[in-house]
């Protein structure tokens, strides 16, 4: 029991120490300090469009099926379904 408690305390202390080493205090005069190194999240619409362009370049049935599976309600899924029909010859 004592050894388990000692391990738990050691883990908690290490976690707190690591958290303190990573985080920098933010002052009211510089509320965005430290945030300038963060990347902006990607635009989801651009990501879907990029994926669609890649599948068009591949032109395989599998690529179209995967796109439709991943984005069934996206407007480009309708285009993918039409192209998939053409590829299947139906």
TrEMBL record:
<feature type="region of interest" description="Disordered">
    <location>
        <begin position="23"/>
        <end position="43"/>
    </location>
</feature>
<dbReference type="InterPro" id="IPR011990">
    <property type="entry name" value="TPR-like_helical_dom_sf"/>
</dbReference>
<protein>
    <recommendedName>
        <fullName>DUF4148 domain-containing protein</fullName>
    </recommendedName>
</protein>
<keyword id="KW-0732">Signal</keyword>
<feature type="signal peptide">
    <location>
        <begin position="1"/>
        <end position="28"/>
    </location>
</feature>
């Amino acid at each position: 029991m004592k050894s388990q408690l000692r391990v738990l305390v050691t883990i908690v202390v290490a976690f707190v120490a690591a958290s303190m080493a990573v985080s920098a205090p933010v002052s009211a005069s510089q509320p965005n300090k430290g945030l300038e190194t963060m990347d902006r999240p990607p635009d989801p619409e651009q990501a879907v469009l990029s994926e669609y362009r890649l599948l068009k370049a591949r032109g395989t049935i599998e690529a179209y099926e995967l796109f439709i599976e991943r984005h069934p309600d996206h407007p480009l899924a309708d285009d993918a379904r039409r192209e998939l029909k053409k590829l299947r010859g139906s």
